[in-house]
Design a protein that fits this description.
Blueprint lengths: L16 E3 L1 H7 L2 E5 L12 H14 L4 E7 L3 H13 L2 E7 L8 H8 L3 E5 L1 H4 L2 H14 L4 E3 L7 H21 L5 E6 L3 H12 L5 E6 L4 H19 L19 E3 L12 H14 L8 H17 L21 E5 L11 H8 L2
Parallel strand pairs: 2-10, 3-4, 3-6, 4-5, 7-8, 7-10, 8-9
Antiparallel strand pairs: 1-2
The chain binds pyridoxal-5'-phosphate.
Cofactor: pyridoxal 5'-phosphate
GO biological process, one term: alpha-amino acid metabolic process
GO molecular function: D-cysteine desulfhydrase activity
Length: about 350
């Protein structure tokens, strides 16, 4: 009763689910991690699941060039460039260049993957959709055929990656003999969260899905998520079934997006972020990243503490704002969406903070 579009095979799936034993003991919950950082190496992280659907669409339309955009250190752009190289497609990346820095991290890898990188100012980036349209038109004038993937591949087609991840998690629950009460993810451009929410409904999975924003406010991301789901309903509908958010019982207000742990803004870290990243590394042997998963993981642990103690003494958990009630949950699954290469451009900052 639901149409699922075709995909190509790029990611190493299924990704493992492991228990974080020491963190679980420390926080009095069973905390598990799904290693979507291990969907590949060059093609690592959550974007690969989305690109399996976006690029299938591009190939169907006989595209020879992928065009996409993001921040200078975008994991999505690096994954797209790697997929392009592997599949013999050209890749044009429109990157927001905040500061002129020597190539490092993902940006260095983009260049090594031979992507056609166009650096634009944050001011110009406001019109990035128009800029990508223009590039696509230029290509057409030269007899080439571009396919535009929006930022983060967070559109209706990309969402299928995480709708289908819900099915993967359901089958892993059976294998492991565990039911996860809540799934926690990072919200950067919402495709992952929106896919999980829709998959949860369609596959009747019964999870609470909780997203931690690393950039925008809760209400903004609720709106974007809703629009993504509405668009995706067109894809999943067929001649016998017309789906809408209403028909699926999906309401904007129900999207559980916590925006209390964004810090000073996208890509900006506090020393506490790095300490938490180091804590996880030293206790569990797992690296999370500064821009996305580090903030979300820190948010999840803080919200668990908040649910247990309400006003933890001396903590930096915000008093105001909307919290998630983790007291209801025993088994929690955090999705590690990747981003490791983002650690390296912050090497000096990290080194300063962890030598305490
Ligand atoms: C892009 C990204 C996210 C956010 O996912 P969205 O689907 O854009 O919300 C989370 N973690 C990492 C490492 C990412 O690169």
């Amino acid at each position: 009763m639901y149409n699922i579009p075709p995909k190509i095979h790029l990611a190493y799936l299924p990704t493992r689910i492991d228990k974080l034993n020491k963190i679980s003991t420390e926080y009095g919950k069973n905390i598990y991690i799904k290693r979507d950082d291990l969907t590949g190496m060059e093609l690592s992280g959550n974007k690969v699941r989305k690109l399996e659907y976006s690029i299938a669409q591009a190939l169907k339309l006989k595209a020879d060039t992928l065009i996409t955009c993001g921040a200078l250190q975008s994991n999505h752009c690096r994954a797209t460039a790697a997929a392009g190289a592997k599949l013999g497609l050209k890749t044009v990346l429109v990157l927001k260049d905040g500061e002129k820095t020597p190539p490092s991290g993902n940006y260095l890898l983009d260049l090594m993957l031979d992507a056609d990188v166009r650096l634009i100012s944050p001011q110009d980036y406001k019109n990035v959709d128009k800029i990508m349209d223009n590039i696509c038109n230029e290509l057409k004038a030269n007899g080439q055929n571009g396919y535009i993937i929006p930022m983060g591949a967070s559109n209706a087609i990309g969402m299928f990656g995480y709708m289908e991840a819900i099915r993967e998690i359901l089958s892993q629950e059976k294998e492991l003999g565990i039911h996860f009460d809540a799934i926690v993810d990072t919200v950067g451009s919402t495709g992952t969260f929106a896919g999980l929410v829709l998959g949860n409904v369609i596959y009747n999975a019964g999870f609470d899905i909780i997203g931690f924003s690393v950039s925008e406010e809760r209400s903004y991301f609720q709106e974007v998520t809703y629009n993504n789901i509405k668009d995706c309903c067109k894809y999943i509908s067929n001649e016998n079934y017309t789906h809408t958010p209403q028909s699926l019982g999906i309401k904007k207000e129900d999207f559980n997006i916590i925006d209390l742990y964004r810090g000073e803004g996208y890509g900006i870290n506090s020393p506490d972020d790095f300490k938490l990243i180091k804590h996880l590394a030293s206790k569990e042997g797992i690296f999370i990243d500064p821009v996305y998963t580090g903030k979300a993981f820190k948010g999840m642990l803080s919200e668990i503490r908040h649910s247990q103690l309400k006003n933890p003494v001396g903590s930096d958990i915000p008093k105001d704002g909307i919290h998630a009630d983790f007291s209801k949950y025993e088994n929690i699954l955090f999705i590690h969406t990747g981003g490791l290469f983002g650690l390296f451009p912050k090497a000096a900052e990290i080194a300063d903070c962890i030598r305490f």
